[in-house]
Structures are given as structure tokens and as C-alpha cells.
Fold these 2 entries.
Entry 1:
Amino acid sequence: MPPSPVTVMQLPDLSDPSAHRSFLREVKKFMDSSRQPRLIVDLSTVGQIAPESIDLLLECVDQAERSDGEVSVAGASRETEVILELTQATSVLNIFPSVLEAANGSQPQVA
Amino acid sequence: MEMGALVVTAGGDVTSTAPGSSLWAPAWPVLGQTVLERWIKMVQGLGVGLVSVVDRAEQQSNRVHTMIEWAREGVERILLIVLGSYAEIDLCDLVRFHYEGQHQVTRVFDQEGPLGISLLDRGCVLGHRERAIHEPHSHSSRYDFLGYVIRLSSTVSYRQLVEDALQGRCGIRPTGIQTRERVWIDQTAFVDPSVQIEAPCYIGPRARVRASVRIRGCSSIERDCDIDLGTTLDHTSILPNTYVAPGLYVRESVVDGTKLENLARGVELDLGTAGLLARIGNPQPTASGRPVQVSPDQELPLSGAEAQQS
């Protein structure tokens, strides 16, 4: 059985609606073209995640579930980890310390 | 007069963050009452009629002046409490120790060191004046205290005190009515019948806890808070006048208005702009820094040393 396809993406600039739309288009394309796709969102450059970004991650989860896939986030700051837990996004996202660990399929962090 | 008590609070605005910590402020109530209010009650329980509260930010000479004035007016002993800890000292025993030992100055210590509590004789205050008050250790006796004490210098120690109080590990009893074992809910609080409460917990005056909220892990909700639908509080304290948005999971945190300090990760966040937290109502004014005198039968305000001016 071939391994699940993996792609790594960064969150778009929230102030740019076209980047936002383009990000979602890419996610949808990846999810639609793969079986059990694994999307890794690299948060290592995000200081404190905004609520709009969490909504975007949840949209990704929604897309992933339709293809029996999953969404992971990697490299989140402590601030972002707290917000992900606070908003209960951790219940639908896999959390990894780094993109490498996420890509290697290590055990996700316990939120 | 037999005895006076001078309580020195943390410097500056007691609602502001204490130096060296992130969110912690001395004006935070612990299950309905601030530590200052609890100290004043302890002192009043000793039968001390003359209690004054001064701000540490005030010039030290003002403090000294108050003590010398008291001594001149005939106050025999002055209990000086520099607030920095909550300690369940048997003040009667302290006075007895001081009196029987004919000490001029008695300082209270625990295993970690001095607790900022001293008992000074009138003669000492008048005789040695400033030196005796500035340096009470120079010719003092030591009273070793082995009971419950916690130094309040951080949000972590604040949470420890709340948990100890809710677990019955110290003498603090929450205000309000104990509705069932180790669950205290103020009569003026609104708690939706669907709220799941896991003991121990505290819900303060005029707090509003909406449908499907879950409260567990020694959590406390102080006065005038609003916890919105379906939110879970776990090992968390919500400070007065705080709104918490629906559907959140707040764990190992202390929340004050828009600010949240997560103790598990050592992170402080302002979540006001994210719409997850808000400051609501009008926080009560607290100690202005001017000395206030508290009469023995005076009802203490809910917050700070807002009391009759001396």
C-alpha cells in the first residue's frame, strides 16, 4: 500500500483575501487528488495564532475529512499552543513540535 | 491603647502586576476576599482596635511617622505586617511570646526566612526611632512559625493558595454558601441547572455561569464574572469582572479581564482582540496608597483597602 501523500503549507497572510482563497484552493486540490492525504501546516513563523487562522485550519480539517485525510500543525509557539487548546482546535488537529516529526509520522503531542 | 497594627501593602496600584511576575497582582481575591482583607480580619480577631493600611509605595518616613505617633499616643505594642505572604499565624500566641519574653522586637520566621511580620514595643519605637523600625532585626527575637504559609509572589503561588483553600489544606473558608461538600456558591450568583460542577469549586457574588459550562479541578470564579455557554474551566481561576466566551477549554490558567496566564506553559496572553475574553462591569476601586484606618467593627470592602480615611 503506497504511503499517504504529505504536503507542507504555511498559513496565508490574513490581510490578503486572494492569498486566503488561493490557500484554500490548494488545500482542496491536494485533498481531492489524494487518498488519505496528510496536510502539515507549518506554524513555526507564527507568534500568536489569530482566531481567523484557526477558522482556516478548521476548514482544512473539514476538507481533509472528506478524503479520509488528516491535518497536523507543527512548530507552534507556546502562545499558539495555548490558543489551540483554549479553542479546542486540538481535538481535531494533530500537534507536532516540528515539521520533520509530523512528516515522519511520529506520535503527536498530547495537547 | 494596648496594640495597633500597621499593614503595609504592595507598592503602587495594587491592581497592577507585581514586579518580577507576569500577571499576578496583590488585589486578586482568594475565594471572595483579598489576602489583605483576610489579614485585617485576623488582626481584628485579636481585638486590635487600631488598624491602619499603608501602601509600600508611600515614603517610608510616613510609615515610621505613623508608628511613632501611635507610640506617643500610648499604643503599647505595634504589629507591623508587610504583606507578601498569607500565613495562618496564631497572633495571640505571638503576642504572648513577645510579652512573656519581654522582647522589644519580635520577628516572625518560617523555614524559608522572615515573613515580614514584626511586633514592636512602644519603648523600642520611641527609643530607637527610625533605626528600630527600619532595621527591626538588629536587636530582635525570633518567633518560629511552623503552620500554613504561602509567599504570594506569582500567579503560580496564587493558584496554589486557591487550591489549598478549596482542598481544605489551609484555614481559608470561601465566602458564600456551601451548597454541597466543598462547593461554595454565593447566593447572588446565577448558575444554570445544566452546569456540571466537580467539587471543590467556588462561584462568587453575582457571577453568571451559563448553560452546559463544566467546572472542575479546584476552579474558582470570583465576583461579577460571566462564563458563557459550554465553556470548561479546569484547574483555573477567573478573577472579578471577567467574561469568558462560549465553547472554550480553559486549563491550568488564571484569567483576569482580557488577560490569561497559562501556568502549564508559562505563557501570558491578551485575548481581548480575539474576542475570547473581556473585562465586564466596573472593577471596584482599590487602595489608593493613602493610609486608611479600619475600625474594629467595620465591614471590609470586597477589594483592596477601600475604607474610612484616618
Note: Chain B has two domains: 3-153+285-294, 175-279.
Entry 2:
Amino acid sequence: MNADVLAGLVLASAATSLLATACGSLVGLVVGMIPGMTISTGIIILLPLTFVLAPQISIALLLGLYVGGMTGGSFSAILLNIPGTPSASATAIDGYPMARRGEAGRALGISISASFAGGMASFLCLFLIAPLLADVALSFRTPDMFALVLFGLTIICSFAARSLVKALLSAVLGLLIVTIGQDPVMGTARFTFGEVEMLGGIHFLTAMIGLFAIPQLVENLAPGGALAAPVQRIAPGWRAVLPSLADLRAIRLAVAMGSGLGAGLGIMPGVGGPIAAFIAYDYARRTSRRPEEFGKGSPEGVAAPEAANNGVTGGALIPMMTLGIPGDPVTAILIGALMIHGLAPGPLLFIERADFAYGIIFSFLWANVFGILIAFAGLRVLVRLLAMPKPLLMPLVAVLCVVGSYALANSFFDVMVMFLFGVLGLAMRWAGLPVVPLLLALVLGRQVEETLRVSLTGSQGDVTVFLTSPISLAFLLLSVVSVVWSLRPRGGWIAAASGRRAGPRQTPEGS
Amino acid sequence: MRKRDVATAAVFLALGAAAAAMTAALPERSLPNTPGPAFFPWVATVAMLALACVLLARGLTAPPQAGDMEETSPAGTAPMLALLGAFVAYIALLPRLGFLLASAPFIAGLTVLYGERRPAVVALTAVAATAALYVAFRHVFQIILPQGVLTGVVP
């Protein structure tokens, strides 16, 4: 085994890292499970800790949460018919009918096992593809990096909303906000209104806390809702939960398809768990021997989306680690957590800190292992938390938003920024603008500006520099394709021509 | 006409105009043929204005929708404003009163806002949650929390 791979395994398997992964998995399962709390909320809860913990431990904690949250989302989808996270929406279609006919334990067992299989498949993808992609990315020059980051932004916009114009407006707003502070090339102060605190710009972690948490706190003000729904009971005994060999045999194709689709789609920024889960569900139904059972409580209908949404997690880590491009809010936070500790994700991470890069990959493996262990061992205790009262949870989340944004730099300015972004998030929700493009523009904006300006400075203002490099040209063409693709009529050109309508598009918001 | 889109476009047009005015005032410190500090803000501003024009045109020409400008949040406006007001008060008082004294009434207020009406439960939640968060962050994870008037009084 390569020395760096071994060093990474040792880092990820240290007692503190393992403990952090297990804690993250537990928190992830809980926040993923409780309707009204998403994986992003869980991250906001743990964010202040990542400022003080060592980088490897912080990442282990967040990865545990990411993977655990994806699995936990299915618990409430099955037991309440309310997905705990958007990624578990497809699971409810067959999971809840299974629970209604007294097979809640069986559905949960299948869901946890499929999640584990999806997670392991995506670990393999991550382990095998990430180092290769990092090698390729090392040869990228500045114009190529600009085209790549631009592609990351446009593809996120094309997936993020029903209206491409609104998604692009959201991204452009983010790019404009990023220009606040010192310019990245010359250090000129821009839009600071003479305030010293504005010189450093807006930190995207502060912005993210406000953008995600405050609209969610407002949404949870609605009376009744999720937590008032009746919870389906799980039959007593282990056999009610552990999937039988016959079940495992029945779902193997759906799981394989879901895992592959999830990991493959996860690599594309912006696809996210919900889209992958619905695509996997659709494919599983089409290829099933018993398609008539779908929608009425088919085990395959539970297994395919669960394998897919956990498959996405490892896939999404690939562009995040090798190119520094986040695919969803969770990977954006992971980038933030790394940057706080002076570690910039990107191809150089595999050269300068290869042990750490492999440490992340192996922590992801452990996150999946703890995910299945804690989910099976603690299932009966965990589902009791579904009855946890909102008046207890939501005030804690509110305080943690403030503590998290304050702890970033011990600054009340950041707390105010967090709150203003919360109000912005509410306004954007009213206007139907997706927040994910804004967030990712905040993460990638400085890189967009820097690479654009450095490229143009190098070429003396000649814009053809982006067209003469084959890599840059390819990414620019892909950007155009992603925009044109998102402008297509719902259900495709042919369907539009024949007047057929397709269902609504899913958004990766909040995972 | 779709009023919500028209209103959104109008806000972005105003924002774009303000950004353009501020960008025009940025100092030009650049070598010939190289982009200066104002270059990227111009790119973003022009893109914003162009996209806002597209949204405006689409909003004006789209067929009208029933309840277009109505509240979309199931929670209603009054509880939302109460929550935002509580946040403003909390953020304003936090530097002066410190974490312990500012958080307890904030948590109590929110507990009531989220539907708990029993005074004893509200008080207990506020005190216990504040104390638990303080101990966890300050002493277990060593995160600095604002002390306010209690500086030097509590460990």
C-alpha cells in the first residue's frame, strides 16, 4: 500500500477521529430524521466546534454528519410519510406504505442497508477517482481553472431552480457580494463604505448560517406540521429490523443501480441527493420485475433512492477535494472548514498533504460504517426523538446560529452579517430565487475573479486565451450545454413537441 | 403579468444601478490592457442588470397568477416578524449583557413563540439550555463567548 494511503488510514483511524466520526453520525442521524431540520442545520450546530478542533477531527465530524443525515432522512419518510431531508422524498413513496401495513422495521432495515451499500460504492469511487482527477487537474492553467469554476457555477444554476434566469440572478448577486472587501489581485478596497471590518469581505460560512437557518426557523413557526403526525410503530425484536436474505436478494439490483447512479451523478456539482434519488427510483421501477408494486410498498422502491442519496455523498466529495468545487451546501461547508485550518482543497492537496487527503477519504469510509452500526443499534431509541418537541429544539438552533457566526472571528459584525443574510434568504424564498447558486457563488466568486483577471493580464487583455486552450474551451462549451439543457421544455424537446408534461424538477437545496 | 417577478426584477434593477454607480467611483489603478479592480464588479453588475431586464420582460408578459403576491410561508407574517424582532434584540443586547444574560430571555421568548405556554417549562428550558450551552462551548470546547456585564464574575 502506498505510504500516503497508509498514513491517511492511520489519521482517520485514530481514536479521536473515530470518536468524532461516530458523534457526527449520531448527530446526522438525528437531524436528518427530524422533519424541519436538514443536514445543513446539523452542520450549523457543529460548526463552532470545527473552529477549535484539529482539521482531521473537524472533517471526520462533518463527514459523519453528512452520511448519517442522508440515512436518517429516511426514518421519518418511512415512519411519518414526511421526509426528514429533501433527499429522502423518494423513499417515502414506498417506505410509508410498507410501514402502514406493519412492516416499518423491514422498511427501515432495507433503507439502512441500502444507504450503507450506496455509501460504500461512493467510497470506492472517491478512493479510485479522486487521486486520478487530482493528477489531471494539476495540469490546468489559469484560463482552464476559470472555465472550470464557471462551469461549476452554471451547472449548479441549471439544476437549482425551475427558472434559469432566477438561478443566474442568485449567482450574480453572490458574485457581486464577493467583490466587497479587498480585491484579490491588487488589494484595492471595494464597496467597504470606509468600514475596516468590511475589508475582509463577507465570509461564506457566516452567510450560509443565515441563508439556511433563519428561513428554516421561520418555516418551523407554522403550528402542528410534521411533529404532530402519527409515528408508525416498529414491531419488537431484531428480526423485525434486520433485512432477511430474501429481501437482500430482492433489492440487489435496485441497490446496485441506485449506488452507481448516485455516485456518478454526485460528481456533477449541483445534482444533489434529491435528484439522484428520484432518478434511481424511476430507473428501479422501469427495470423491476414487479413494477406494479411501486408506490404500494415495494422494498426495491425504498432501496434504490436510499442507495442513490448516500451514493451522492462520496461522489460530491470528488470535485470538492480535487478541484475545490463544492456540489452542495454540505461540501461548501467542508471547504470552509478546511480553509479555516489553512488547507485549500484542490489538486495540490493531494501533493502537499496527501496523507490528509487520504485521511478525508478514509474518514468517509468510517462515516459509512458508523452510520450503519449506530442506525441499527440505536434505531428504537432514535425514532423516539421524532416526538421531540419543536419548542425545545428551535430556540437552541437559533442560539447556535448566533454562537456559530460569532465564534468564527469573535466578531459581532459577523453576527449581524449572518442575520442580514437570513433576511435575504427569506426575501429570496418569497421571490422564488434559489439560495444554492448564491452560496456557491460566495464560495467560488473570488476564484472566478482571480483566475479571470490573471488570465487576461497574462494575455494582455486578449479574450481568445480562453478559446485556445482545449481544456478551457471544453469547459466553456460544457457551460453553454448546461445552460441550453436547462432551457429545454419540461420533459424534453420531444415531449414538449408532443404536448406531454413531466413532473416538477427537484432542487438540491438543503440536501 | 406576474407581480412577484416584476417586483423582484425591479429590486435587482435598483441594486444593479446602485452597484454601477459605486463601481464607477472605484479608483482606476491598472496597467494598459489589463483588467483593474473595477473590472469584475462591472461584469457582475452588467450581468445582473441584463438578467433583471429578462425577468422583468417575462414577468410583464406572463399570464397572471391567482394569489401572486400573497404570503407563501405557512407560518404567517406576525410570528415571522416576532422571530426576527427577537433576533434583533438578542444581537443588540449580546455585547452588552453577555451570553448568559442575553440568551436566557431569548430562548424563553422563542420557546413561547414555538408553542410552549407552561411558564415553568419555559423558564426551565431557558435556564437549563443557556447553562448547558455556556458550559459546553466555554469550558468543554474552549470557545470564547461574550461575557458583557458579567466579565470577571462568571468563570
Note: Chain A touches chain B through 64 residues (CB under 8 Å).
